[in-house]
Every structure is written in structure tokens, then in C-alpha cells.
């Protein structure tokens, strides 16, 4: 997902080709905070022949969107960023889409407490979406 500052020419598009990020200042998740997310963003750029120009690294998605809203660059983040609305930011899908991150969930064997059961159902629903 690309987070584009208001007023940027890419905001008129329905998606952002990764190639269009060539030469643009980018805002990525911090490698320290989210190494898998940072690696996925860099891999998407390099697969499209784009050498990323990293302007800033953000420790969380709210900071990433705030930096984009200030016009400091284009952010690359997970599709889950769509949940956050931020004034001054247009969220657009990347083309081709960056690889997703793989998550694993484990829990203790035995009876499943109701809270854990509810959590597992929510994870399964979100995973299907």
C-alpha cells in the first residue's frame, strides 16, 4: 500500500506503479521496529528495478502517515494501513502488490478459554478477508 501526500500528482491515480517511486523520497517502517515490513517494501522496489531513496524510517504506522501528511515523502506500508484515516494522505494500492507478511499463531494445547476462542475466531475472519 502506498501512502501519498495530498497534492502529489500520484493522488489522481487509482494505484501506484512501484516504478513510479523511482527518485521519490520514501518513508518506510523502521528496520529496528518492523524488519519484515521494511524488507518487504525494499524487495518490492528492487523487484521493479527501483533503488529506494529512503528519506525517513518510522517506528509505527501513525508516524509513517504523519510524515507523509507533512509532505516528507511517499510511505510504503501494509494493506492494514487502510484502517487509519489521516488528513493529508491518500492511500493507494501498489502495482504490483508487495509481498504479504506471514504470521504464525500458537497457543497452549488443551481447553481453549473463551477470550482466546474469540481471539482465534477474529484472526481467522481477518485472515479470510
UniProtKB/TrEMBL annotation:
Superkingdom to which the source organism belongs: Bacteria
Keywords on record: DNA-binding, Transcription, Transcription regulation
Presence of keyword DNA-binding: yes
Cited SUPFAM superfamilies: Periplasmic binding protein-like II
Record's GO cellular component terms: protein-DNA complex
Protein family membership: Belongs to the LysR transcriptional regulatory family.
Name this polypeptide is given: LysR substrate-binding domain-containing protein
Organism (species): Streptomyces violaceusniger
Amino acid at each position: 500500500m502506498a501512502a501519498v501526500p495530498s497534492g502529489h500528482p500520484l493522488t489522481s491515480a487509482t494505484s501506484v506503479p512501484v516504478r513510479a517511486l523511482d527518485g521519490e523520497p520514501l518513508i518506510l517502517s523502521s528496520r529496528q521496529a518492523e524488519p519484515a515490513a521494511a524488507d518487504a517494501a525494499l524487495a518490492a522496489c528492487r523487484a521493479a528495478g527501483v533503488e529506494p531513496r529512503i528519506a525517513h524510517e518510522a517506528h509505527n504506522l501513525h508516524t509513517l502517515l504523519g510524515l507523509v501528511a507533512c509532505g516528507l515523502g511517499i510511505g510504503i506500508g501494509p494493506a492494514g494501513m487502510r484502517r487509519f484515516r489521516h488528513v493529508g494522505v491518500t492511500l493507494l494500492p501498489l502495482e504490483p502488490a508487495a509481498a504479504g507478511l506471514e504470521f504464525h499463531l500458537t497457543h497452549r494445547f488443551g481447553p481453549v478459554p473463551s477470550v482466546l476462542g474469540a481471539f482465534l475466531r477474529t484472526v481467522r475472519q481477518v485472515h479470510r478477508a
